[in-house]
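Just curious. Invent one:
>
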Amino acid sequence: FVHLWVGFDATGVPEDLDCHHSVFNEGLLDDDAAALDAERNMYIISIPSLFDPGLAPPGKHLAHCYAAATEPYESWARFDRQSAEYKAAKEEAAEPLWRALEAVVPDIRERSDMVTIGTPLTHERYNRRHKGTYGPAGATREGDLAGFGNGATPVDGLWQVGDSMFPGIGLPAAAASGILVA
């Protein structure tokens, strides 16, 4: 996944703005199935500081946006993370995420104080995820979905929770995994 995290000025942001959004950059493309299957078309946006202002400095909000699809690791593996080529590829990959965010907060680029772009290489390095996987899909062995999502382990009373379990991606989903096994 390519992710975009943006810290931005909250001045004038409507108080009734929803926290979660799904945005199709190319609309519904003639039918729902085509829009869902289109590469890099559907984006998920969360602005958690709308629920908990303590997640951002006073007067600021935090937005997280990602494409609801897998990002091929192979297209990123060739990069040196320190190279100008990698930085340019990150900026290019983030452009549709910016457009999705602008559907929710039209002037978000001008409001931005902090911007971080994450790629599969980011996930591989900082989250120690094999080939940059994110969420439950990368947590299982290929072809082995036994126990997928139920949190069970062979140890009585020990449960697995977090972003590598169902429902996966993001803090709300990680918390939900704990609720599901409770």
